[in-house]
Amino acid sequence: MPLILNIETATQICSVGLSDNGNIIAIRETNEQRSHASRVTVFIEEVFKEAGISLNAIDAVAVSMGPGSYTGLRIGVSTAKGLCFALDKPLIAVSTLESLAWGMREIVKERIPGNNEKLIFCPMIDARRMEVYQAMFDMLMNPLTATVADIIDEHSFFELLKSHTMMFAGDGSAKCKSLFEGQANAVFMDDVQPSACFMAPLSDKHFINSNFENTALFEPFYLKDFIAGKPKVKGLGN
Q1: Are 54 and 48 in contact (CB under 8 A)?
Q2: What is the mean pLDDT of residues 220-231?
Q3: How far apart are CA 218 and CA 92, in angstroms?
Q4: What is the pLDDT of residues 178-224, one digit of tens each?
Q5: What letter does residue 230 receive in the DSSP assignment?
Q6: What confidence tens digit (pLDDT) does each residue in 19-78 have?
Q7: Calpha distance 9→14 (Å, rounded)
Q8: Rounded Cα distance, 1 and 207, in Å
Q9: Tally of CA atoms within 13 A in the half-sphere of 236 that contains its CB
Q10: What is the longest distance spanned by two Cα atoms in the chain?
Q11: How far apart are CA 167 and CA 161, in angstroms?
């Protein structure tokens, strides 16, 4: 029964959860902006204190691998790596979009019981302006597309929405919502965001299958190169 520390910092959400056999036993999370650096280690201490176990008792550390915020991913991965080296534990990488899709599916199963085989889950993460990181999954969590960075407009998913109900969630979906007004088959799960809670079943599966990363060489899945903003300095031209 693997005991795994799950760290999710790919978006504005900072979430840390301790899972036992794929079930969360302690969790801390916040959506406070730019809080990852100050909160992630505090949250780690708090979940272990709540569970009444020591850091060394865990079997692995899992981290949300992206795509997502460059800074958030760096903080999460650096923290996970540091713990793995210090505790001599394996590192597990969990796809941010797959984890979010998993959470969407579990919520749908509770809210809409019955045959939902025609549902498509489309988690979206903000990639600035009208671009999002997105992928699509069916009810069995089979990937229907690769993870892509896509510019969304009113014509996106036009053919799919004719025959399928598409479920959207994540901070990327929020900015696209207005484009699909009037589309009965476009359903937005506004309250669903990335969480360590959604990572737990996937990290458990990776552990059972010994799907571990090379801790020294592992890097987040950025999908796009990081482009630093041009600093605005008074007195300098554009």
Answers
A1: yes
A2: 64
A3: 10
A4: 999 889 999 999 999 999 999 999 999 999 999 999 999 999 999 87
A5: P
A6: 999 999 999 999 998 899 999 999 999 999 999 999 999 999 999 999 999 999 999 999
A7: 5
A8: 10
A9: 5
A10: 63
A11: 10
Question: Binning pLDDT at 50, 70 and 90, where does residue 236 land?
Answer: very low
| 90: amino acid identity, one letter | P
Q: Which amino acid is at 200?
A: A
CA 227 from centre of chain: 21
d(C-alpha 137, C-alpha 198), whole Å: 15
Separation CA 189–CA 109 (nearest Å): 13
Single-letter residue type at 112: I
Structure tokens at 112: 């809409």
Phi first, then psi: give them for residue 215, nearest 5 degrees.
-60, -40
Q: Which amino acid is at 213?
A: E
Phi, psi (deg, nearest 5) at residue 169? -155, 165
Neighbours of 88 (CB within 10 A): 8
